[in-house]
Amino acid sequence: MKRDAPPVPPVDRDAPRPWPWWPPARSPEAVAAATAAAQPSSDASFGSVVDGTLDVRHGPVLYLDGITVSFDGFRALNALTLTIDAGELRCVIGPNGAGKTTMMDVITGKTRPDTGTAYFGQTIDLTRLTENQIAHAGIGRKFQKPTIFERHTVFENLELSMKADKRVRKTLFARLSSEERDRIATTLAQIRLTDAADRQAGLLSHGQKQWLEIGMLLMQEPKLLLLDEPVAGMSDDETERTAELFLSLAGTHSLVVVEHDMKFVETIAKKVTVLHEGSVLAEGSLAEVQADPRVVEVYLGR
To answer: Range of 170's domain?
Structure first.
């Protein structure tokens, strides 16, 4: 006989935080020390995260130049050059196999380029950092399928994602400060889940789960968000609310949105980059790229 699931116990937000079942995050100091140690002795700060600040004095938050990646003879990226300004919301479109996922893999350190350079701000060389170091430097990535802790509440998901010291002793005995509670409350309001704070995350709708994962990224205080097909599977109302969320984040954060839903792209994009066969085919406003005969031929006309 199938048994009913046991009732969910009430949430005690003053209780010690749950035991972290993932590797404890390293402190910014440890990341900076490890990164500096990997740099040439002539300039230990070059390409490293020295003080946790991002240098965007000259505009770009992300700069890719001549990035090439090959897999068994297939060029996934072919001398890709791309610049994202600080606070910009950029949409990246293109047919399947155009290199959109590989581009994000390079930015986050999952894939190392064969040639080319990738800079976060003016001084952080992404090709010299590990995935964890890049995440701590301020780049957050959201995949198409939401990854949340379904047995925990919405509030607990945000708490567990908070950029903080997660060493065992700190985690076991820490209680949320008023500042941390305010941060969670602010994020709940941003992602429109204030009323669902005590709801088990697994009970949320698909769109709400997507918003929760975005909120979890925001708790890490990223400077750059990479968002892979964020509205896939959403209802029209959820898609509209997601557009409003992204527009509200632009300026404070830089966003790179990979999306196939052209109606959604039209709602949020001021500038669109079209990838094809691993390089930039066209770039400009949505109207400009839609009028480009090359884009019509390889993507929009299909």
So the answer is: 141-221
